[in-house]
Amino acid sequence: MGKGKAKGKTNAQKIVDVIAPRYAKWQGLTMNTHYWNDPNFSKWYVSQIRAANSLLRLYDIKDIVNALNYKDNLWMSSLRCNGLINDIKIEKINREKSENVKRVTVEKVVEEDYTPTNKKKNNKLDKLR
Prior knowledge:
About 65% of the residues lie in helices and about 0% in strands.
């Protein structure tokens, strides 16, 4: 592995990869594999990486990507669009609700299945004691 080469993409890069094709379509540009090195994309890319990093400080990557993929948000080619923050908050609340429901059902099952019973069985060994 050479100097300065990372194996995978950061979460910010993954988020920007979601909106990059939208930006290219809006600007009428063609995307190559290393589009961030293209002079037409480089300034936009750096700006979006900064915006993605600020969003990642507050929200989970799943919430951000899911909000970007809402039907009403498919036109967004920037992470600084109005309304995106509200959709991310909604996605976060929905995810937390579903996690709480899963957690509660698992706890109920564990409590019901593994609670020890105080009933003594009436077998011959119990009568001898």
